[in-house]
Amino acid sequence: MIFIYIIVAIFLLIGLLLLDFSLGKKNHRKNVRFLDFESTTGDYQIYTSGDPLFEDLFQDLRHAKKKIDMMFFIIKTDEISRELLEILKQKAEEGLQVRLLLDRIGSYRINSKVIKELNQSGVEFAFSEKPKFPYFFYRSQRRNHRKITIIDGDVGYIGGFNVGREYLGKDAELGKWRDYHLRLLGDIVQHLQSTFFDDWYLATGHHDEEPVPTETEGEKWIEIAATDGVQLEDVFESLICQAKEEIFIGTPYFIPSERLFKCLTDALERGVNVKVIVPMKADHPLVKEAGLPYMMRLIDAGGEVYMFDQGFYHAKVVIVDQQLCDIGTANFDRRSLFLNKEVNTIIHNPRFVMDLRLAFLRDVQDSQPLNDHLIQLFTIRTKIKIGIARFFRPLL
């Protein structure tokens, strides 16, 4: 009898979680916020590893004169994280306005002691997307995955790197960390600033005056796409459907919607070359197994899938026809498409796209092609996990 009660309780709990998720999703879609930005001017520097990125970021922070606005999904409490927090405290003590916004679950290691020390130094701190009732389960899954830094309103950083020792390649299990991040200058930084302002308002209730728009002469080749679990599928579809020659996708998790997967197979039928890079290793349970059926179907349709095996691959890029690309915080998975807040840059600059394309092709050289031989090596355990992962795709 006790066993029956336990089974009933489990099914009841699952039912309540599904109801919470369904109602929360409906409420989210009804109240979604749209941030609409036009293409503008800017200049860039691209990073593909953590050491030069953090060296330049920390130098820019130390040279800040007026204010620092920073938002990350994950900041930890290890050595690199402590160094960053110390810089922020020092700049606040110098009299600068310093604001730090972190995702509540992604940065769970930042405890009350750390926050108190930040506040005592003058750093304004807030957590983004705190899970709360109603729809607690849904809100716990919906994360702010954005990673933005704006310094003096002039310098902006955006990309896939969080803050922690693994992003410097110091995690023995994951190894070298491969990711893409941008340092931006010019008018585009104002759009990053507006994105931060909106998230800061939602977390604190404080309104900031929008930066005064400037119109620098030059080619308007870069655009911010700030998505909120609704618009990203449209962004990716628009990019893929434009392709005439090639589509290169780099992502740590390849779990596309059926709509986007059809866009890719339609592109293959048009004769477009489709290449996808994913990591050989997985950093979360079931994400690799959830993506394998899509990878195998893509290969059957004529696409190419490569598994990066020189460390962990965390890049988030879509490159189209050597003319256009998307680079930022969004993965090619259900969580980024339908749950998370993300921010990407859409870039129409052939010179930049060529630089990014060359970096992508270098990563192909550091990868193994997923082919029939590798698929035949899948163990029974892997096949069972593939079956289990199907049930969790909406959360992956």
Automatic annotation (TrEMBL):
Q: Which UniProt keywords apply?
A: Cell membrane, Lipid biosynthesis, Lipid metabolism, Membrane, Phospholipid biosynthesis, Phospholipid metabolism, Repeat, Transferase, Transmembrane, Transmembrane helix
Known PROSITE patterns for this protein? Answer: PLD
Any Pfam family: PLDc_2
Q: Which GO terms describe its molecular function?
A: cardiolipin synthase activity
Boundaries of each PLD phosphodiesterase domain copy?
A: 140-167, 309-336
Q: What is its EC number?
A: 2.7.8.-
The highest taxon in the source lineage is Bacteria
Q: Where in the cell is it found?
A: Cell membrane
Does tRNA processing show up as a keyword for this record?
no
Give an example GO biological process.
cardiolipin biosynthetic process
Instruction: Give the CC-aspect GO terms.
Output: plasma membrane
Is Membrane among the key words of this record?
A: yes
Q: Which NCBIfam families match?
A: bac_cardiolipin
Q: What is this protein called?
A: Cardiolipin synthase
Organism of derivation: Pontibacillus chungwhensis BH030062
